[in-house]
Design a protein that fits this description.
Elements: H1 16-19, H2 22-44, H3 48-59, E1 65-66, E2 69-70, H4 86-99, E3 110-114, E4 118-124, H5 141-154, E5 161-166, H6 180-195, E6 206-211, E7 230-236
Parallel strand pairs: 5-6
Antiparallel strand pairs: 1-2, 3-4, 4-7, 5-7
């Protein structure tokens, strides 16, 4: 009789429960939630400037990071703005204003024009005052936000900036104490002080502050029109003299001069260099 074969079955108890990956997912979720909590707590205790820097990044996440949030997008970001490419700066500023929620409605009161002097950015007042209180140098909330945004963007370019103040032709009630001359220059200086906050225009970036009163009306046919009351920022062109060796970075080769003639000389930026004279005046009336 054949002996029965004995088969031994060994059961191996597994320890997969201790080495599975499910706990890693849960731990990662926990760490992510804690990180988010700490970021929120940090943001609640940061300064207003830091909050604006972070908001600037999310307004333009594809931009080049800078102290003021993010820089302009595009391959030519590092290039200075000259007559040949100043339109790019205009487009970038207009886009940034449109993308900023609390400034979008004010965009119709901002006019940008390329002039022989540079890019002129004009903040036009409405009947009841858009950027400044009527007849006053007190900035409204919208005016502060607009100038702050422009300062943050213009601080990233090497170009100089000049600031002008203008009024309409409405005279003050008493021209012996305070007049349109003082008001126009004071408003320009208020704009300068705000724009030169930390993270804004550099200390040496403002080249001129000028007050013109009602001597350069935007609408001469309607001297009392509210749009004559405005603060203008002029981003001045950079010329070859502003660069070492007289050659802008990555400048394109100039066109060959016509046969028998010399290359045309550069046309210097135009514009007044002196602050308009002031005269005495009186208490402000509405309409300036």
């Amino acid at each position: 009789m054949a002996k029965a074969q004995i088969i031994v079955i060994k059961k191996v108890k597994g320890h997969g429960g201790h080495h599975g990956g499910a706990w890693k997912v849960a731990y990662a979720d926990f760490v992510t939630a804690m990180m988010a909590l700490f970021i929120v707590l940090w943001l609640l205790n940061t300064s207003e400037h830091t909050k604006k820097v972070i908001a600037g990044y999310f307004n333009d996440p594809l931009g080049k990071p800078t102290e003021s949030g993010s820089d302009r997008t595009g391959a030519a970001d590092a290039l200075p703005f000259t007559k040949e490419n100043i339109e790019k700066l205009k487009e970038q500023l207009q886009k940034q204003i449109q993308q900023t929620a609390n400034l979008k409605d004010l965009s119709k009161q901002v006019e940008m024009t390329v002039t022989p002097e540079g890019l002129r950015i004009e903040l036009l007042e409405s009947k009841d005052g858009t950027f400044f209180d009527t007849g006053s140098t007190t900035l409204k909330a919208g005016g502060k936000d607009m100038l702050d945004l422009l300062a943050s963007k213009l601080s990233t370019v090497p170009n100089k900036v000049s600031i002008e103040g203008h009024t309409d032709a409405q005279p003050f009630s008493d021209g012996k104490i305070y007049s349109n001359w003082e008001l126009s220059e004071d408003r320009a200086n208020v704009a300068r002080r705000l724009m030169q906050h930390p993270g804004g225009l550099r200390a040496n970036q403002v080249s001129q502050v000028r007050g013109f009163a009602d001597q350069r009306l935007r609408d001469p046919l309607h001297p009392l029109d509210p749009s004559n009351r405005r603060v203008s920022l002029i981003v001045q062109y950079l010329t070859p003299a502003d660069f070492p060796g007289g050659v802008p970075p990555a400048a394109e080769k100039p066109a060959a001069p016509a046969e028998g003639g010399a290359a045309p000389a550069p046309n210097p930026a135009e514009g007044d260099s002196a602050t308009a004279p002031k005269s005495a005046g009186g208490k402000p009336n509405a309409g300036h």
